[in-house]
Design brief:
The protein has 28 helices and 11 strands. It has 657 residues and is α+β, with helices and mostly antiparallel strands.
Length: 657
């Protein structure tokens, strides 16, 4: 019984080890554990918008995953009635609700977390990788309940063997990114997986149980004791063995067979192999990220005394990081000051500055001071300012300017000499970051015109308003009106482009602001084409179309060969825009090439049913969910139009007696 209990414990240990090994292997091979790479295959997931946060969760081939991102301008709108409930492991779990996608850049907290769980047939271990200044992260710094290890990639051909039609493969290929290897146990999954793999191993080891009956049969044929192998010559038939006392008539029980030496040795060997395979996978932990040079590591850790000791030992103050596994390529030229500044270690920054570090030295285009400003470490920025003269404006400062506080902005404007193009770039960033107060500070700092085509503030303002006005936002940011109110008027060419963008995108607030500032552009409305009117209907809906009609836009412009605005809206499969145009009085019976738009839609559907490749419009129009509604709406509109024409034709002439 004792040996059976030992065998059972050995099988459970083997099942447990195999469960963990399978989970680790899945985490290192399956790309869904790599936060910087796309998920494999077609993951099944869900996307939920909460107040200022975008929550995505799903399931891939081997892993379950979950991410938390603060919403930005380009994300879908959040559900502002739903409170944010982030898990405790998320970086932002103790932060206030985010103000939404159109808040100023300095008010947004960019938070991301990956929760991965691995294992088969159930997920049995999990870990979390949270965000931070990830490009300057120390190995494993943002992984909880696991560690970062070099991901194993599938073998890839690296070249042909010379003189033969064979492909040479890397023997142990690894990916360029570190994967998350989960360690935190999930009790239910670990228990089930252990039982499953223990049962699987017991089935695999079952043939070894037959070795014991075979050995006993061989000994019996040779006249020896079946248990100890002692010679039974001279003993009467059925007498017990004189050596071990075994009764030759006794038969082995099932427990004895399962607890035999051969299955136990096989299970022990399998356990060693599984443990060895796990150890091989664990070696990838040390392959994940090359160690930083001593000075970089001391700067990243904020260890000022260690920085002084390393510098006293002869380390170069501007030593470049160099190429490192697991570190982004663009950081190859980063200096220790970049690492200390990015991580907000003021004491380390002061130690490096006192030793002669240059706060304006660039790495991947950004000097340390700009890196600190991007990460909102203003004490670090304040420490660097005395080491920079008025004309030593750091490259890229204008891109990070809108992330600073009002006080820091004023400090930067007063400390440096700002060229016009820097002020314009900073203002463009502030407009796209929804921060009008920043634009006002820049105007006070010397910005007095709107720049060239690339840095035109008016066009940036219209574009920002357009993004906020798109469905389903319908939010008026007022950026265009604000820029015009500050006197930042563009050239005539820029004004034309901005006016057209406001009108064609359907952004009514920007359009009204532009029309008030440039009333002479009203003629552009009066001659707008059917395509323009349809675009305005698609982008801005009924309010925009009504506004254009009030200003003199013709709703029924179009010839025999050219459809009216209704045609263009229908060709985009936009039922809502068609409804808006019909309400505005567009003629649904207008014919182009001898047919109405409804007839054209029906012919397109017939053509698509017979030959899907015959018409390039067929798939996008007939396959649209609103195709049926579109046809019904046009049919009803045609009937109403004809009824109105008949009633007007049959109405008595007021001059008749």
């Amino acid at each position: 019984m004792r040996r059976f209990a030992f065998m059972l414990a050995l099988l459970l240990a083997l099942g447990l080890s195999t469960s963990v090994l399978v989970a680790w292997a899945g985490a290192l091979v399956d790309r869904s554990a790599w936060p910087d790479t796309p998920l494999t295959g077609e993951p099944v997931g869900s996307r939920t918008e909460m107040r200022g946060w975008l929550v995505e969760a799903g399931r891939d081939r081997t892993l379950s995953w979950q991410t938390f991102d603060a919403l930005d301008l380009w994300d879908e709108p959040p559900d502002l009635d739903t409170p944010t409930n982030l898990p405790a492991w998320s970086v932002g779990h103790d932060l206030a609700d985010q103000p939404g996608p159109f808040a100023p850049a300095r008010q947004r907290t960019f938070d991301e977390a990956w929760e991965v769980s691995a294992g088969w047939p159930m997920r049995c271990v999990r870990a979390v990788r949270t965000a931070g200044p990830t490009e300057y992260a120390l190995p494993g710094e943002f992984v909880r309940g696991g560690f970062a290890a070099m991901a194993v990639d599938w073998p890839a051909a690296t070249g042909a063997v010379e003189g033969a039609d064979q492909i040479r493969f890397d023997p142990w290929p690894v990916g360029p990114f570190a994967a998350i290897v989960p360690l935190r146990p999930m009790p239910v999954g670990l228990f089930v997986n252990t039982l499953v793999f223990a049962l699987a191993w017991s089935i695999l080891l079952l043939p070894l149980c037959a070795l014991r009956p075979l050995r006993r049969r061989r000994r019996r044929k040779r006249g020896r004791c079946v248990r100890c192998g002692h010679d039974r010559d001279g003993l009467p038939e059925g007498a017990p063995c004189t050596e071990c006392g075994h009764d030759p008539a006794a038969r082995s029980t099932v427990l004895e067979l399962l607890a035999a030496r051969a299955p136990a040795l096989g299970a022990a060997l399998a356990l060693v192999l599984v443990a060895g395979a796990s150890a091989v996978l664990l070696t990838h932990r040390w392959m994940a990220v090359d160690p930083l040079p001593p000075l970089h590591r001391a700067a990243a850790a904020g260890d000022a005394p260690q920085i002084e000791r390393v510098l006293a030992g002869g380390a170069a103050i501007h030593q470049a990081l160099g190429e490192r596994a697991g570190v982004p390529k663009f950081l190859d030229h980063s200096t220790p000051l970049h690492w200390a500044a990015a991580r907000g270690h003021a004491a380390a920054v002061n130690a490096l500055l006192d030793a002669g570090a240059d706060p304006a030295m660039q790495s991947f285009g950004y000097p340390p001071m700009v890196v600190a400003l991007f990460h909102r470490h203003e004490p670090v920025v304040e420490a660097m300012l005395p080491h920079l003269g008025r004309f030593d404006t750091p490259s890229g400062l204008e891109t990070a300017f809108c992330h600073a506080s009002d006080a820091m902005r004023a400090r930067l404007l007063a400390h440096f000499e700002w060229e016009d193009w820097r002020l314009q770039n900073a203002a463009c960033s502030a407009i796209m970051g929804c921060d009008p107060a920043c634009v006002e500070q820049l105007v006070a700092g010397g910005l007095d015109h709107v720049g060239d085509h690339q840095r035109n503030l008016l066009r940036h303002a219209v574009s920002t308003d357009r993004l906020a006005w798109e469905a389903p936002y319908r939010r008026d940011l007022g950026s265009t009106a604000h820029v015009l109110g500050l006197g930042l008027r563009g050239t005539e060419t820029a004004a034309i482009h901005a006016f057209d963008e406001a009108m064609l995108s359907g952004c009514l607030p920007a359009f009204d602001a532009m029309l008030e500032a440039y009333p002479m552009r009203r003629y552009r409305v009066e001659i707008c084409s059917p395509r323009d009117l349809a675009a305005a209907a698609v982008g801005g809906g009924e309010p925009m179309v009504r506004r254009l009609v009030e200003l003199g836009a013709s709703t029924n412009v179009g010839g025999r060969d050219v459809g009216n605005a209704l045609w263009y809206a229908a060709m985009q499969a936009e039922p809502d825009a068609v409804a808006v145009l019909l309400d505005a009085g567009v003629d649904p019976t207008h014919e182009a090439d001898g047919r109405t738009v409804r007839r054209w839609l029906l012919e397109t559907a017939e053509q698509a049913a017979g030959d899907p490749d015959a018409n390039r419009w067929a798939a996008s129009i007939t396959g649209h969910d609103g195709f049926g509604r579109l046809v019904e709406m046009l049919e009803a509109a045609e009937a109403a139009w004809h009824a109105r024409e008949r009633s007007e034709r049959d109405a008595p002439d007021p001059g008749d007696p």
